[in-house]
Structures are given as C-alpha cells and as structure tokens.
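Troubleshooting: if your tokenizer reports a length mismatch, compare your output against this known-good record of 461 residues.
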Amino acid sequence: MSGGRFADSVRRIVHLAWPLFIGQISVVAFATVDTLLVGRHSAADLAALSVGSAAYITVFIGLMGVVLALGPIVGQLYGARQLEQAGRQLHQAVWLALALALLGSTVLLFPAPFMALARMTPEQEARVRDYLSVLALSLPASLLFSAYRGFNNALSRPKAVMALQVGGLALKVPLSAVLIGGLPALGVPALGVVGCATSTAIVMWSQAIVAFVVLRRSEFYAPFMLWGRGLHPPDRQALWTQLRLGVPMGLSILIEVSGFALMAVFIARLGTSAVAGHQIAANLVSLMFMLPMTLASATSTLVAQRIGARDPHDARRLVRHGIGFGLLAACVLGSLVFLGRDGVVRLYTQDAAVIAAALPLLAWMTLFHVVDAAQTLASFVLRAYRIATVPMFIFAGSLWGVGLGGGYVLAFDVGGWTPAPLRGAPGYWAASTAGLTLAAALLLAVVWRVMREARRQTASA
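Known-good structure output:
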C-alpha cells in the first residue's frame, strides 16, 4: 500500500469517525457518570447497577443491532443516489423499532432470568427490579433514536447525531447528580441506582423528540421524501430486507455484549467488592472500545457507499486501510491506559477492597482491547457487504463457548485445576480475551475471502 493512498483513506475515515467518536463517548459517559456517582453513594447500589446495567445492555444492544441494519442498506442506496428509497427504509425502521421496543420492555419488566443467574439478596434484587422497570419506559425512545442514528451515519452526516448525544450528556450529568444523591433543600429524595434509570429515561425521550423535529424541519432531508401523508405503512419486502440483515446483526451484537455483560451477573456471586471491581474495569474498557468502534463504523459506511456507487476497487482499499489504521490506534490507546491503570482506577473509587479487585482485571486490558478492536473492524466491514450470518455463528462459538463458558470454568474452578491467579473475576477476563482472539482471527479470514472474491469478480468483469 502506498503512503499517499493510506493517508487519503485515513483522512476520509477520520473525517467521518471523529463526530461518531465524540457522540459515542457521550453515550458511554452516561454509564460512566452513573458508575462514578453511584460508587460514591453506596457499594450496594453500585453492585445493583452492575447487574441491572448488564441486563439492560443485553436487551437493548441486541434489539438496537436489528434496527441498525438500516445503516448498510441506506449506505448502499445513498451511494447509488436512490434517495427516496433510502427515506422509505427509515420509515420501515421506525415500525421495526416500535415492535422491538414492545418485546424488550416486556423482558425488562419481568427480569426473572437475570435475577436467577445473579443469585442476589432480596434487597439487592428489589433495587435491580426497580432500576429495570424505569428503563423499560425509556427503551422505545432509545430504539427510535437508533434509527435516526443509523440513517444519518449512513448519509455521512454523523454531526447531526453527535449534537444530540452531547446535548443528552449535558442534561444527564446534573439530572443523575440530583436524582442519585438527592437534594434535601428542595425535597428531592436520594433515589440511588433508580435515579440513574430515571435520568436516562428523561434524556432518551428528549433526544427522540428533538430528532423528530430535526428530520421534519431540516432542508437536508427533503430529497428523501420523508414527509408526505405521514409514516409510510409497513412494507413487507422492505421489512424483510432489514430483518434478513438485522436479525443476525442483532444476534451477533447480543452474543458479543451478553458474553461480556453476563460476566457481571456471574461475578455477582463472588461478592460486592468483586462485582464492583469488575464494573470499573468493564466501564473503562467500554470507554476505550469507542475508538475502534467508531473507526469501524466510519469504514463500514464508506465501504457501503462505494459498493452502492459501483466502485469495488476503492471499497477494497478502504477495507485494508481502515482495518490497519484501527488496529494501530487500538494498540496505542491500550498501552497508554495500561501504563496508567493505577491512577485511572482511583478516579472511580477510594475503596481499597474494590481497587484490589479491579487492578488485576486491568492487567488483561491491553490484549483484550486490541483483539476486540480487530473483531469489531472485521465484523463492521462484513456488514457493509451485507454479510452477517457467518459472523453470528463465529461469535456464538467464540464468545459464548470459549469466553462465557470457559470463564465460568476458570472463575469457579469447576475442574479443580484452575491456577489461583485465574480464580474469580480474572478467570472470566482471561477466557473472554481468548474468545475474542479466536473471533478476530476467524472474522479476518472471512474478510480476506470476501476481498479475494470481490477482486476476482472485478477482474472477470
């Protein structure tokens, strides 16, 4: 690869990625704010937040993945300049989001499976149930905003999403501070972990309403014919197109996130300090993940647009350069955070027991982050080519089988042979790193085969 071409690809990717990065950092900062504030409120509320957020993320992320199938579809239509068809796809995504919200909210209102896995005390279980009940009210807004996000990102318009995400964070911080800790002077009680959910619900509905207004009033969206006689009725063929790509995408994301999030549910069995330490490490890794994820999203958007524009050569070049640049960035970021891990953990808590539980987990962080970046870049590229089923099976075997299953064996010393350093939460992190490594290797192999086939088709044409 020539330096000039690589630099040009990186410039195009970064131009699209930086608003995505700021927006996603704002979203993850929601959880960071809650973790910091609740950690200072009480360790019991922090443990409830860890389990409750794991349950919510498992539900929301899987459903969001289905809605975000809108992105690759609209990206190709936009590249082909079929703008009205792209607008029709957004309408169908709205119907899809509403149907999925009904399903997801029901699961959050009846979270018995998560409670059974966590084996919490009755008091802790009551906190988690209250937390999830409030979030069930915010799920429809979150999924509708996901449709807005997927549509705009596919049009290379991430700043429209970033503005609302940053604004949401600006509203989230004071709301969480007041609702979690209370404001006795004004008669506002301290809600603890339930205050996190309440502030999130308020912010998400605010974002969804503003997104609707933007789509309605901005002249940019006029060519997409979004507003005629109202919302287009459900279109069976369009919905099937989104579901055919979105269901395996959603299941892939669900497998990936649940394999990580359910770690918190099982680690909760080890005690409050263990799960609180895991929550800190998990939140930190989630923040770091935003860099490769946004680079992967930008690469995928550009590749989908070039496929729609019938420029396969540029699409392949963006794939190579995007993966290379994303891995380089992940290595640098992971190394920097690893070197400063002691100071970083102390930003979250001063509890000696929680610090002692968190620091060993961060020893795995650099490798975990790099292989996580590799599998993310590869899977996003494959979505641009509308390939999602094969990655789904790879994720199931690698992340559930090796990561979650292997982590259980190591953490709880099922066979009686687990080394002492890998018992407890470190065992889950070691197994998850191994699962991500396997997934990354297999997904990169699939990308290589897709590129080789695309090159062969171009040559024969």
